[in-house]
Specification:
This protein is α/β, with parallel strands linked by helices. It has helices at about 5-15, 90-100, 115-135, 150-160, 175-180, 185-205, 235-245, 275-290, 295, 310-320, 330-335, 345-350, 360-365, 370-375, 395-400, 405-415; strands at about 45-50, 55-60, 105-110, 140-145, 165, 220-225, 250-255, 325, 375-380. Bound molecules: iron/sulfur cluster (SF4). Keywords: Iron, Iron-sulfur, Metal-binding, S-adenosyl-L-methionine.
Length: about 425
């Protein structure tokens, strides 16, 4: 790799790390004194293909020059960050080189806006087109869609890419007006709508027995920055809900605002606590998989999620009249509302109780968090009656003690299908 391309790569992989709409992993720190196995929060990220495989992607910007001046963004026109721009050919070559060395299985490509939306979209699309046509590249491609770009260009992008994303960026129109005045919510949602229509059209052609060209088979996602304005969590979740229902987005990613050099005085000096991002993801699961409505998830008066306990537990504590739930009689929808019981365990419980009545031991065997759950359920051998539910100190009783998470905790939670 030439020195010039290497320097561009350093700048443009670093600039891409702020985009969470392509899920990323990896530690942000490297052990002192290490010589091999260094980790970086940028460069290669991971994403999931439609068949559930985790793939590693080269995550870069085509350029970090931008004509817009979004106040939360390090690449805004008024920022004095070092700039670089790849040619289409350089991105194609880098992707192929990394792929052949087995470093990546695909590409996540985004860009600042150069000249105008159409010109930028053309360049991004050309990268994907060259990879597919000239190199017969079959790996995963995620392209960022530029709002305001011509519909035909977005259609073409979807022919070559597996996933498209249009970032909503901020939860409300007022937030956009304040911090990203050049961005217009109708333009963003129109681009999402166009992608959704095309995905549906392709699906119905396929169902009718035709073989239409593939269009963004891994769907579309978006990113919302959290904590750059004072907007509360219920407004953030209302926007996410609208995106899931009106535009059928596959994922909404929540990205905690991270302070940038020489930021506008209107922006907060530090990031919101990361736990807020985590709680929003948990609330997002309640919306998508647990049958909760957006207006019932946030129970606090300030309309923010409780940072100390997960949103399902917070809801249960605020709605004690709904409990205890008899796990041997309750519907699936009721079981999903019990704190400490995940979707996968609900499925198991429904299947077990066809053969015998569920006892406490059965739930414990499923690794249900009994300490959290016991006050809210009736089993064949356990009935807390109203005793626990009337207790003033129920919140303390069921709140998990703070502890350092380990990889194996997370693995256990994943096995139970709990978030
Ligand atoms: S359009 Fe994108 S790259 Fe440009 S300033 Fe706004 S957020 Fe940053």
């Amino acid at each position: 790799m030439s020195r010039d391309v290497q320097q561009k790569l350093e700048i443009l992989a670093d600039a891409a790390k702020y985009d969470a709409s392509c899920s990323s992993s990896g530690s942000k720190s490297t052990r002192a004194g290490s010589q091999i196995g260094s980790t970086e929060g940028m460069g290669i990220c991971h994403s999931y293909t439609p068949d559930g495989r985790c793939v590693s992607l080269l995550k870069i910007l085509l350029t970090n020059y931008c004509i817009f001046d979004c106040q939360y963004c390090v690449n805004r026109v008024s920022s004095d960050t070092p700039r670089a721009r790849f040619t289409v050919g350089e991105v194609v070559q880098l992707t192929m080189d990394f792929y052949k060395r087995n470093y990546v299985e695909g590409l996540f490509l985004s860009s600042g806006i150069i000249q105008n939306s159409d010109y930028t979209m053309e360049q991004l699309t050309q990268v994907a087109k060259d990879l597919r046509q000239k190199h017969r590249f079959g790996g995963y491609i995620h392209l960022k869609t530029i709002p305001g770009a011509n519909e035909k260009l977005i259609e073409e992008a979807g022919m070559w890419a597996d996933r498209l994303s249009v970032n909503i960026e901020l939860p409300t129109e007022l937030d956009l007006k304040q911090l990203a005045p050049e961005k217009k919510k109708p333009e963003i949602t129109q681009a999402m709508h166009g992608i959704q229509e095309k995905i549906e059209e392709t699906k119905s052609d396929r169902n009718a027995g035709y073989k239409p060209p593939s269009f963004a088979p891994a769907g579309q996602s978006t990113q919302m920055i959290v904590g750059a304005t004072a907007t509360s969590d219920d407004a953030i979740l209302a926007t996410a809900d609208e995106l899931y229902t009106a535009h059928e987005l596959r994922r909404v990613y929540y990205s905690a605002y991270s302070p940038i050099p020489h930021a506008d005085a209107a922006l907060p000096g530090k990031s919101p606590p990361l736990i807020r991002e985590h709680r929003l993801y948990q609330a997002d699961w309640l919306l998508r998989f647990y049958g909760f409505d957006v207006d019932e998830i946030v129970v606090r008066e300030d309309r923010n999620l409780d940072l100390d306990i997960d949103p399902k537990l917070a809801w249960a504590l605020a709605h004690r009249e709904y409990f205890p739930i008899d796990v041997n009689r309750a519907t699936r929808e009721q079981l999903l509302r019990i704190p400490g019981i995940g979707a996968r365990n609900v499925k198991r419980m429904l299947s077990i109780r066809r053969h015998h009545a569920l006892r406490t031991e059965d739930l414990k065997k499923m690794r249900v968090v009994w300490k959290r759950t016991k006050s809210f359920v009736i089993t064949a051998d356990h009935n807390p009656s109203l005793g626990d539910l009337d207790r003033q100190d129920l919140r303390q009783l069921v709140t998990p003690k703070p502890k350092q998470l380990t990889l194996f905790d997370a693995f256990g939670e994943a096995l139970k299908g709990e978030f």
